[in-house]
Amino acid sequence: MSQELGNNNEEIVYTETSKDLFLPLAFVRDLISYMLLRGRQLFFYTFALISLLVTLIEGAKDFIVQRMFWGRGSLYRTSFHIVIFALTLLIVVSGVSTRLNISAQSNGLALNEAAIGRKDLIYQAGTAEALSVISENDADIEVYKYVVQQGDTLSSIAKIYNKNITTLVWANNLSSKDAILKVGQVLRIPAIDGAYYTVKKGDTLEKIAKYTNSNAIDIWDLNSNIIDYDNPVLAEGMELFVPNGVIPTPPPKVITASSKGTPSGGLVVPSGAFVHPLLHCSGWSWSRGFSSYHGGVDMAKAGGCWINSIGNGYVKKAGWGGWGFTTIIDHGGGIVSIYGHGTGKFNVKAGDYVKAGQDIMYMGNSGYSFGTHLHLEIQVNGRKINPEYYVKLR
User: Fold this and answer.
1) How many other CB atoms sit within 10 Å of the CB of residue 269?
2) Is the N end or the C end of the chain the one with fewer CB atoms within 10 Å?
């Protein structure tokens, strides 16, 4: 295709190929121009909106400030600034105190449960001593002294100091959480939960940590006043505080006692040794064992028979309870035995001291029971344990 133009008979020729080449370039050029235009518009609109918001906020702030200080002198303004500064400083100091593990208790400032060790040898307390270096001979944790008053129990004292009962038991060499306290008795109460451990021959920090379910570094850090950092050698008889440690209850010796002897008089057995609960009952049968849903063992006999205590201890209960007619005996060391489903015929009462093998109540079918049998439970520090770990039952 061709076309003639001009007076000079000049001929300009346009071909389909050249037209196709110029169209994409024109499109790209127009697209870029369009995007730049829209970009400028978006920028200006956004800038205008932000300027409007800033103006509104500034106006609101000025209005609030004017209303706050309207009719008041410069003294009020200065006082207001001082109060704001004081509150800000208080918040900052409180945050720092929290990071230093300082907590307030009813009896003064003390380390909280997360505090371990000296924290770079700076004494942690709410006094001027907080800026002083402590002596290497000072204990790493504070230990309170409490004088037992009338009506006090380990539970009530532990609640006052926000401590676990076991911490008080281990810190004062008590027999169990139900130990009877005497008025005037002095108890030591460490500032954090844990246990005291007396070093035995051959002990190391790692062995003690494994035995008490604790951490060797924490034990080392909280006993730095008696353990040399450069030479952490333990001496036999040394008393260490184990933070958040647990002193496991040693299993009692299991002995097989003869069924012969006085039915109600008991047997002479070593301390901590347990005997069968049906020493004086022949013809009984095994009914049910220990499981996750059955916290004891059952032993049955048609017509019933006398049930005896498995060990020495004090009777905590002899009467109606959670297992029908029930007897509960505290053997010390956190170990309690429970005998359920009696007939209501008891040979002991609460507060009596009984010996291993001594008859305590007659087997029956009371409470939630299906047939005459003994339900025997053993609890250690409140946790149900398979009685067959402690007594040879079958």
Assistant:
1) 19
2) N
CB-based burial of residue 191 (10 Å sphere; 0-12 exposed, 13-18 middle, 19+ buried)? buried
- Alpha carbons 251 and 385: distance in angstroms, whole number: 11
CB of 352 within 8 A of CB of 359? no
User: What is the predicted pLDDT for the residue at 259?
Assistant: 37
Question: pTM of the entire structure?
Answer: 0.37
pLDDT score of 388 = 87
Strands (DSSP E) contained in the chain are: 3-5, 10-12, 102-105, 108-111, 143-147, 186-190, 194-198, 239-243, 285-288, 297-300, 306-308, 313-321, 324-332, 335-346, 353-354, 359-363, 373-380, 383-385
User: What is the spatial distance between Cα 55 and Cα 48, in angstroms, rounded to a whole number?
Assistant: 10
State both tokens at 41: 């518009």
Which residues of the chain, if any, have pLDDT below 50?
1-8, 12, 14, 98-134, 251-271
DSSP-based three-state secondary structure for 212: coil
Residue 119's nearest CA partner among 145, 97, 87 is 97
Amino acid found at 379: Q
